[in-house]
Amino acid sequence: MDLQFHMDEIDAFIRQPDGSLFSWHERLRCYQHILYDTVKVNKPAMKFKCGDKEVCWEMGESILRKLETEGIVKEIFPLHDDVMRKQLVKSWALNWWDFTEQPIDEICSYFGMKIAIYFAFLGMYTRWLFFPAAFGLIVHLIDFGWLQFFVLPAFFVCLVTWAVLFFQFWKRKNSALLARWQVDQTPGAGRDYKAFELEWSLFQFPSDHIKKYGSEKITEKEAFQRDEWFGRFMRYRNDFVVILSIICLQLPFELAYAHFYAVIESDLLKFGLTVVYLLSIQYLTRIGGKIAVKLVNREASKNVEYRADSLVYKVFGLYFMQSYVGLFYHAVLHRNLMTLRRVLIQRLIFSEVVENLLENSIPYFKYKLKKFRAVRFKRKCDRGTVTGKLPRVEKEFLKPTYSASICEELEDGLFDDFLELALQFGMIMMFACAFPLAFTFAALNNITEIRTDALKLLVMLRRPVPRHDATIGAWLNIFQFLIVMSICTNCILLVCLYDREGEWNISPGLVAILVMEHALLLIKFGFSHFVPEVKFVAPGGYF
Amino acid sequence: MDLQFHMDEIDAFIRQPDGSLFSWHERLRCYQHILYDTVKVNKPAMKFKCGDKEVCWEMGESILRKLETEGIVKEIFPLHDDVMRKQLVKSWALNWWDFTEQPIDEICSYFGMKIAIYFAFLGMYTRWLFFPAAFGLIVHLIDFGWLQFFVLPAFFVCLVTWAVLFFQFWKRKNSALLARWQVDQTPGAGRDYKAFELEWSLFQFPSDHIKKYGSEKITEKEAFQRDEWFGRFMRYRNDFVVILSIICLQLPFELAYAHFYAVIESDLLKFGLTVVYLLSIQYLTRIGGKIAVKLVNREASKNVEYRADSLVYKVFGLYFMQSYVGLFYHAVLHRNLMTLRRVLIQRLIFSEVVENLLENSIPYFKYKLKKFRAVRFKRKCDRGTVTGKLPRVEKEFLKPTYSASICEELEDGLFDDFLELALQFGMIMMFACAFPLAFTFAALNNITEIRTDALKLLVMLRRPVPRHDATIGAWLNIFQFLIVMSICTNCILLVCLYDREGEWNISPGLVAILVMEHALLLIKFGFSHFVPEVKFVAPGGYF
């Protein structure tokens, strides 16, 4: 039903936290609607001239789409709002003394929900990291005498409890944020929608119920189920291909690196090897990522969100193998904890300092170069009539976009940021017992990460197109998976630590049963993801 | 907004599967509204005479409530619809040859959703049980030669996969049923509602936002959080008291039984001991259940559904300790698998045959006795003028209600039925490797259970008041918990089976680390329940 909106009854409407009537996401939608739906309604075609080109605007055509296809309009993108941006730079990006405090409501109204949720998560994660950071520092620095024997297990137990509690409280916080922003969070809305459409349509006309209950319904249902399960089967085949290719291609490479690292004596050579390894892995990952994108694109599912999640799982699987297999090799096969610790430090420094620097500086210099060229080009054209300053829109046009390094259609730059966080979390959690100090490094890094990410978004990049995602999505499952993995790996590390001579023994029968138990627990908790529990989604427009 | 309902536009409304406009639940609500809201509106009080009593019906009073307090109306309860009932007896309760097939839609429209969901679950569970039943029979009967060594582990792995898949598919089936019955299944609706009410109210008037963001909001929030966490703390304290009292009271009793059973030689004495044990345990459980009910009633939470779930967890905890501790004692401490098997058979026969018989026959004979007395009383009063037949309403009034044996306010008879199913599932799953034939027993039992439960509801009991629950609720979590437990217990059983002489060894350090690992995995998956992830619930009437 349509109710007319009167400006003087504006108080009756629920508003955004910043007082405006629509969110940035909704406003952008409106702008797009206005821009793209400027359609010619009357008959005689209109003609424009632009340089040498002549454009003919015919009836029923959108002017903007016409201009885009002709190449006259290069791109449509949202501009930064300079007043708001400067305010945010001041209150958020350069506000170093607040440590983890951020003006989340303002971020939400400027960048949209998804980015605000990322920063809320990053802030809360960093705040919570202070506890294990301090604990790790104490464990590393203080000698507890005869209690030393129990310190690492105690640290480990506290850590797992901490991680579990953190994610539970994050879910609460996320719900509270959504309630504050007045968002309806229907879990899995839009997913597995089709399954119910069928069931609904069968019961829309109850008088036909008995008729439809016959063979017709069963064949329709069967065809639909065949489709659904075939799509799922395809997906798992793809996952299987990815995993197999990773194992075949990457594992020997990883193991060779780990082996060489253990064999080489000179520290300098070792460092060189690590640098070469890390750079080549970047290259390898990019290939793997492209394969993953291709596989995802061939999947049957048409839902963008679902495919984005699928991509997240696949790419994280790749990175997971890459980042940790070499470390496992050091830890378990060589029982060489000193080397493991050194490799961990190198990785942490490399990934956190170097990658942060590269990530932020390369786009900046690219932008500067582009700008310099543009100014020179302009000067040439105008022959010195202008002082060489670019107009604001052109400057923004030259800025890089906030996009994922792997697949621009499905994910934006948050993919890279979350990937970085997940890899860091995995590294510090899974090898916690080998190197408790890692938490302190991570906490320090994340404090700077908040501000550098903020600066990147506000100063260096184009304003991103807002997305309406209400949670951190697939990443939450990945973090949960990392906690479970970390329980197992830390137990292995503890065995290595306390049993340096390899004197502990265990009967092979017991080992077999233990392996079976772990495999079954994995099945129990893994299958819950394999066979989706269909959540009830009402067909659009009914409620 | 009110829209008028016209009978000739009835086609525009969505209807129940059976063609009626309202569900049985809704209709009963309407009847109750009509019955209880018959209120006198004009002034002079009316007087009735009934036997010796005189009732004065004053203005603003509900006639029915008045009559109830005066004791003239004894009880208001729904009657069976004889046509529908006879049809259901024919198509459902006595339709033995359909095995697990049931007319779920008809059950739903006659008994309401909750009971239909129970029978759908029971049917699907029994249907799925055929696979492990057949597998168990094969494992029990056929000798696989040298492969015999791998048969039990293979059986166990298949079983866990089966159980996990079953519950995932049950969730799908449940959603499909709800979609068919056109029910909106908002997860956890009505729970944790208060948490959001606060957040919402703070943002209802965005212009006051900045003012409220000050100290006032923080104190309000803090007070609220204190309340919330205090309630939760009370709940856990109660849980702790229950568990401790179980351990103190019951464990010695259980262990004494298990010990005597192992010591006594004569088979007859053993059987007698078991019967005494099982009867005394029934008594003990009833005490435990009453304690649990009292604890639940003292909890801060006011939500009925939430308290019902809390009761389910507590009572199941009690039964779990009771039913399995003695068995564990046989399995692990005595390494006596033959005794374990015999005890399992006794338990299965007792719980499935004897309890089923008692459960069904005692209320029936009670009803017969009551009816006999009523008829005799009537004959005395009327002095032989009537043939002694009771009117239908009086007959129904004498029938027992479908109520839980433990707490009538929070749960109905489904509580007992689900408890029976969960205990059976736990028994057959947790000791699967010791006694694979149990699945066959369970499958046979459940086929009869479907029909006897149907008969009980249709013939023996009063028509139950329908409930609007859309899932099997807390029981699903209990089943999931039993799967995880069964993985661990079966591993222990396998160790006992393959290592009869106790020759396998393991270093104490490894044992410590393994115990720690299992404890942490328990924390990981247990904490997810302890710290509830608040689901977003919109305040009523907004959507």
Descriptive account of the structure:
2 copies of one chain form a homodimer. Chain A has helices spanning 24-36, 63-70, 82-93, 104-111, 113-141, 148-180, 193-203, 209-212, 215-263, 267-297, 304-333, 337-382, 392-398, 414-430, 438-460, 474-498, 508-530; strands at 46-50, 53-57. In chain A, strands 1-2 form a two-stranded antiparallel sheet. Chain A is 68% helix and 2% strand. The first copy, chain A, has 17 helices and 2 strands. Chain A has 543 residues and is mostly helical. The first copy, chain A, is globular and about 90 Å long. In chain A, α11 packs parallel to α14 (414-430), α11 (304-333) packs parallel to α16 and α14 packs parallel to α16. Chain A has 2 domains: 7-70, no CATH class; 91-199 and 234-498, no CATH class. At the A-B interface, α6, α7, α16 and α17 of A face α6, α7, α16 and α17 of B. Chains A, B: Residues 107-534 form the Anoctamin transmembrane domain. Chains A, B: GO terms for molecular function: chloride channel activity. Chains A, B: It holds the Pfam family Anoctamin. Chains A, B: It is found in: Membrane.
Give the integer mean of the pLDDT values of chain A: 78
Q: SSE string of chain A, helix = H, strand = E?
A: HEEHHHHHHHHHHHHHHHH
Helix content of chain A: 55-70%
Dominant shape of chain A: globular
Strand order of the largest sheet of chain A: 1-2
Summarize the biggest pleated sheet of chain A.
2 strands, antiparallel
Q: Please give the most extensive interface between any two protein chains, plus how many residues each contributes.
A: A-B, 73 and 74 residues
Compute the gyration radius of chain A: what is it? 28 Å
Spans of at least 5 consecutive residues with low confidence of chain A: 187-214, 533-543
Through-space gap between termini of chain A: 12 Å
